[in-house]
Amino acid sequence: MPFCSKAVMNRRRTFLTDARGNVGIIFAFALLPIILAVGSALDYGRYNAARARIQTALDATGLMLAHQVDTMSQDEIDELAAQVFHENFREGAGITIKELKTVASADKINLAAKADVETYIMHLAGVEFLPANVDSEIVRSEDSFEVVLVLDNTGSMRGSKIEALKDAAETLVANLFGETTVHPLLDMALVPFSHAVNVGTGNRNASWMDTQGRNPLHSETFDEEFVEKGLTRFDLYDRISNVSWPGCVEARAYPLDIRDTEASSSDPDTLFVPYFAPDEPGDAGDPERDYSNSYLNDVLDKVQKRPRPSKAALQAYTAKYSNGVRAQNSRGRNAPGPAEGCTANPILSLTNRKADIVDALGDMQANGYTNITEGLMWGLRVVSPAAPFSEGKAYGTEDHHKIIILLTDGKNEVASESRWSSNMAGTDNPNKSEYGPYGYAASGRLVDTRNKYTFMEKMDERTAEACDEVKGNGIDLFTITFELNDADTQSLMRNCATQSDMYYNSPDSATLRAVFKEIATRISELRIAK
């Protein structure tokens, strides 16, 4: 046999008798079902995750539609359902929504979605898609709601921040009202706050206002003539030709300042005193050293008394508020005068009209310092069944929810004599501070100190007490800090919330919008029985 033929025959014999190749083929056939089994598990994992995402989107859609579909046609319902569903569920990653169906009845909303989930491994066995049929049923309740927005409108909110707040808050309103313009089961209110809170000039003669000067705080900064002649702060406003009461009120004496105690003429301490910043020593627009708000001449016609009165006496001098006098600055232009520090827009009390709350949000403007306590307490008074605002339903009303959403972008703050000083006023100023809703620091309404940090610590203590008062009345309290890096205030707001997961820290505008949307969803979840 030729050598080459013999070599070929030997190699053929070797190939036919080599067990290694047979093992490889057998292993390959054995591995295929293992791959399919493992791959099927992976595909089913993706399938279950897809179903969960679809379920979440369906539930969110049902919550959004609850209490909105009564006046809508089926086409409108279908259109809104598709819009909301696709806002909450993005197709892709091998998931295709084939059908979305909505059926609304008097007491419930049923939603159904059909989808195909693409397989990655099972298609090797001929299974290219897994069908996903997901249902959701929302049983509508007849629960009613009062929701109050207590929003920081201070100077640090100027520019893009106040615009971001408006946008985020309007998103919440849109989610709660939906397509309904006048809601039968939802009332909303707005309390913009800064240094003080504005209750609205229309309440000048309200029974809960101290129109007769009976509250001891009313005459705190004036001389004996003010009391002897039976004058009120409203009388002094009326004497000043270019300034009228702007609508702000001062804090009541402790502990009424952090209590939901009804204002009553039978107890003058409970009445609310109109905000009035006294004219401080110095001629109009030319304050004396260490003072900041001189808008009238201290002595009429600049006739100097002899001996010259003390600065405290000049400040308390009632006669300078003569009929027709003007509050003016050093250039003779109009000045805020007694309204200095009242910068916030008026409260919008409870309303079930969507346009009212949207318009009020749009009108917000940023100015002034931060007083969280006053903002929160007026939020409580808006939902309280007791005066001053008594539109709120009685506490404990069955199937009724009272909710406050409190937002701040800064800590409680007051003015200092200069950016480098820890004092609120110079040592030549016996008031020890600028005027505010607690009067002057020297009055001791909050704490008698010249140091701003001591004063602000006391403000934080009052805020914590106000939070307890709100929660003690069974009100659900959400709190939000916005672009705030102060750990102490974050902790204060976290502890203020009804529970820790009802506090949100929003580092930017996008997060703030998402936070308001999440709160709207959480409120909507209370609107369903199932």
UniProtKB/TrEMBL annotation:
SUPFAM superfamilies membership: vWA-like (SSF53300)
Pfam families in UniProt: Tad
InterPro entries cross-referenced by the UniProt entry: Tad_N, VWF_A, vWFA_dom_sf
VWFA domain ranges (all copies): 273-519
Superkingdom, taxonomy of origin: Bacteria
Name assigned to this protein: Pilus assembly protein
Lineage: Bacteria, Pseudomonadati, Pseudomonadota, Alphaproteobacteria, Hyphomicrobiales
